[in-house]
Design goal:
The structure holds two protein chains of two kinds.
Chain A lengths: L11 E3 L4 H10 L4 E4 L5 H6 L8 E4 L9 E4 L3 E5 L4 H5 L2 H6 L1 H9 L3 H6 L2 H7 L6 H7 L3 E5 L4 E5 H4 E3 L2 E2 L6 E8 L6 E7 L10 E10 L2 E10 L6 E2 L1 H7 L6 H13 L11 H19 L3
Parallel strand pairs in A: 1-3, 2-3
Antiparallel strand pairs in A: 4-5, 5-10, 6-7, 6-10, 8-9, 11-12, 12-13, 13-14
Helix pairs in contact in A: 10-11, 11-12
Chain B lengths: L1 E7 L2 E7 L5 H8 L18 E4 L2 E4 L12 E3 L12 H9 L8 H14 L5 H7 L10 H16 L1
Parallel strand pairs in B: 1-5
Antiparallel strand pairs in B: 1-2, 3-4, 3-5
Helix pairs in contact in B: 2-5
């Protein structure tokens, strides 16, 4: 039984006004500080004493401009690190051009959680079931990260390194997620299976992005959440579909192949066996939606 | 201790708070507004829902210091003296509560929902209240209460 305290442990609170201030504060604390945005993951973790209590939390919300969602001349969507999940789930641009991101954002938590939690925070916490991850993987998003010396860009496929682990170093801050606009006529979908409809983690999350022309699959990307140590793509299943005439038999075969790409855990939400079966069922369903005539 | 300013239910407060105090701690203990309940304490159940700058938030996972300078509405801010808010009237009339612990949160989530959407469908009501758990499982009457509240507010 996990220990649970109603009160938060003691820590200091910093509210830097600029990114430079935040980065130097983070550097000075030498790993004993925590970057704080929405707090919907961090505060419960601190209350549960799941993570070592930081000496201070560095709240990014004093830095202006980090909460922007911009859509530059129809080529890419840029999601600032402070953009809330609600901001995405209420954005007409996201709904129109990035439906799988919209579905992912809407499926997270509750209005209360979405109003505070940030979309970028969802990938920084990096639980294997993070709803934003499969959609971002199919869209081949990039993550811009700033450290004390330099800025770097990491493709989302290289961002996750394990359960709750990412390439972010203790002295770095995620600046923005950049999502290229998918090819015209492509369709995207994110399907989440969870024991409850709301306020629950996915036991399987499947995102598919595909383009077809006259019944032939031009391109397809399949990503799976909650069924491996990190969110993953299913490249073998994708390869089976690319360039082929779409039939229900082929979709079935590719969806079955997706099972071979995952290595799910057994937990109270679902058994390994059930998750595997659901990878098949959900991938098939997602492919059918994307390639429906 | 840090100095913060809050506007709660239209009243201004200047308070000294610990950086690790949650907004819920301050509302219940410093301001003695105990209508806001603490359920799970980790942002899952919605019992501590308050409205901050027009948005529903879980006060148990917001730091008081983050709320500095913000306007907050708690359940105590809805009634006008003895006159209940139409949403409160609807919950009483329909019986949209059993033990009552989740009710302040339910009502505040309903307020945010109805302020944006005057004619919500059943589906929209359920989605709007998805972050509020009723462990007496009286959701049917709650949804009905929200519909009646919407009618009352449309006049």
């Amino acid at each position: 039984m996990a220990v649970f305290y109603r009160r938060l442990p003691r820590f200091e609170y910093l509210l830097p006004k600029t990114l430079e201030e935040a980065l130097s504060a983070l550097k000075n604390q030498k790993g004993s500080a925590k970057v704080f945005a929405g707090g919907t993951d961090l505060i419960p973790q601190l209350k549960r004493r799941e993570i070592p209590t930081p000496k201070c939390v560095i709240d990014l919300k004093g830095i202006s401009g980090l909460d922007k969602i911009t859509y530059d001349d129809g080529s890419r969507l840029t999601i600032g690190s402070l953009a809330t999940i609600s901001a995405l789930a209420q954005s007409p641009i996201v709904l129109q051009h990035f439906p799988s991101l919209f579905q992912a954002a809407s499926s997270i938590g509750s209005p209360q959680v979405r109003n505070r939690g940030t979309f970028a925070g969802n990938i920084c916490t990096a639980v294997p079931s993070a709803d934003s991850a499969p959609a971002l993987l199919t869209l081949e998003a990039n993550v811009k990260i700033k450290g004390p010396k330099k800025e770097r860009t990491v493709p989302i496929s290289k961002f996750f390194t394990g359960p709750r682990m990412t390439v972010l170093k203790p002295d770095e801050i995620l600046l923005e997620i950049s999502v290229p606009k998918p090819a015209p006529a492509s369709r995207g979908v994110y399907l989440k299976l969870s024991p409850r409809h709301s306020m629950d983690l996915a036991i399987v999350g499947v995102a598919v992005l595909g383009v077809s022309e006259n019944g032939v699959c031009k391109d397809v990307k399949i990503a799976l959440g909650a069924v491996a140590p990190t969110p993953i793509r299913a490249p073998m299943a994708e390869a089976m579909l690319k360039g082929q005439r779409i039939t229900s038999a082929l979709i079935d075969e590719a969806a079955r192949n997706a099972i071979t790409q995952c290595s799910p855990i057994d937990d109270h939400r679902a058994s390994q066996e059930y998750r595997c079966d659901m990878v098949y069922a959900m991938t098939r369903r997602a492919l059918n939606q994307v390639f429906a005539q | 201790m840090e100095q913060i300013r809050l506007n709660v239910n239209g009243k201004d407060y200047e308070l000294q708070v610990k950086p690790s105090a949650t907004l819920l701690d301050v509302i219940r203990e410093d301001l003695a507004l105990t209508g806001t309940k603490e359920g799970c304490g980790v942002g899952e159940c919605g019992a501590c829902t308050v409205i901050m700058e027009g948005k529903a938030v879980n006060a148990c996972i917001v730091l008081a210091i983050e709320a500095n300078g913000k306007s907050i509405t708690t359940i105590e801010g809805l009634a006008d003296g003895e006159k209940l808010h139409p949403i409160q009237e609807a919950f009483v009339e329909i019986g949209g509560l059993q033990c009552g612990f989740c009710t302040p949160g339910m009502i505040l989530s309903t307020k945010v929902l109805l302020d944006k959407n005057k004619t919500p469908t059943d589906q929209e009501i359920r989605k709007g209240l998805e972050g509020n758990f009723c462990r007496c499982t009286g959701y049917t009457k709650i949804v009905e209460s929200v519909k009646v509240a919407a009618q009352k507010m449309r006049g």
